[in-house]
Every structure is written in C-alpha cells, then in structure tokens.
Specification:
Helix content is 2%, strand content 22%. The chain has one helix at 180-183, and strands spanning 6-8, 11-13, 21-23, 26-28, 31-33, 41-43, 46-48, 51-53, 66-68, 70-73, 96-99, 117-119, 157-158, 177-178. The strands form 4 sheets. A 6-stranded parallel sheet has the order 2-5-8-10-11-12, with no helix packed on it. It is elongated and about 65 Å long. The termini are far apart. The relative contact order is 0.10.
C-alpha cells in the first residue's frame, strides 16, 4: 500500500489496509479519515502532527513506533497495547490525544504520559496501573472497570467523568479535579459508611 518511506501533508480517506505490517515509514502532518486499520502492525513508524478521524484501529500494534502531536478523534482503538510505543526518554508530555474515542481493554501500564488528553471517550477496563498521568484530562469519559494502582493522577481532570474506582490509599490524586456527585465514589476505598 505505501510505496514511499516518507509522507508529508497527505490525506488517506476511506481506505482499507490489507497489509499486515508496515515498517519504517514516517507520516508528517498526514490525515487518516474513515480508514479501516483493524489489526494492522505499524513497526518503527513515526507519526508527527498526524490526525486520525473516524478510523477503526481495533487491536492495532504500534511496536517501536513514535508519536508527536498526534490526535485521534471519533476512532475505535479497542485492545491497543500502548506500552509497545517507543517514548522519548527526555519528553514526558503525552505524544498523542484522544477525543470521543473507544479505548476499551487497552493498556498504558507503567507509562509516563503527562498532560494526556482522553476526553469524552469510552475507557472501559483500561490498565493504568503504575503509570504517571500527571495533568491528564479524563473529562466526560466513562472509566468503568479501569485499573488505577500506584498511579500518579496529580492535577488530573475527572470532571464529568463517570464510573471510576480509585483507591485513595494506593494512588496519588493531589490537585485533581472531580465533579462533586461522582467524587463520592472515592470514599468507597476508605471502607466508611455514608449516612
């Protein structure tokens, strides 16, 4: 499908990718719109300032790939292991953001992704254990059954997020913002009775 090693400012629309693996390609300021990328393997690729819109990317593998300023909107990213991505040792800012996406059953285990954006998204049974997610924006997302254990959520935004379970004894939430009604769920970990 891809004949070149570098693509700049190109738009890929309504494409179905049949290749199982794509290796060593750089995409700079490219837009993927309404593409079917299910099960694809992107090995050692680079995505710089790219935009994925209304794409089906379930169980995609980004083994050794790098991201910078990339956005995912209205896309399905179920079952993606984000620990396979190659992150910069020097920059801890999140290299991507998600808006109105489905991230169910994915893993960010142990990653350092400060100021990550996961807004208005389905985040069901996602593994955030051992992660550093300082300043993450989870606003208006459904976090049902997602796992937080030894996770640094300092200064994160949970306003209008729902169904999260965060044990105050084993996670850091200093400076985090919560909606008043949903914040009551934080007390469940303290084994107290509300009357």
């Amino acid at each position: 499908m891809f004949k070149k090693k570098e693509y700049w400012a190109e738009t890929f629309e309504s494409l179905v990718f049949n290749d199982n693996d794509i290796k060593g390609i750089e995409f700079d300021d490219c837009t993927f719109k309404n593409c079917d990328l299910k099960g694809m393997g992107f090995k050692q690729c680079r995505f710089i300032d790219c935009h994925f819109k209304q794409c089906d990317m379930n169980v995609v593998k980004f083994t050794g790939s790098r991201f910078e300023g990339t956005t995912f909107e209205d896309s399905k990213l179920t079952g993606v292991d984000w620990t396979l991505v190659e992150y910069s040792e020097f920059i801890q800012e999140a290299p991507f953001s998600f808006v109105r996406c489905v991230l169910d059953y994915s893993s960010f285990f142990g990653e350092k992704l400060e100021n990550l954006v996961i807004k208005k998204s389905s985040v069901v049974e996602v593994d955030f254990r051992e992660a550093t997610l300082v300043g993450t924006n989870f606003s208006e997302s459904d976090l049902s059954e997602s796992q937080f254990r030894h996770t640094d959520l300092s200064s994160s935004d949970f306003r209008d997020a729902t169904s999260y379970t965060i044990d105050l004894r084993i996670n850091t939430i200093t400076g985090a913002k919560f909606s008043r009604d949903e914040a009551i769920s934080l007390l469940e970990s303290l084994e107290i009775t509300l009357v």
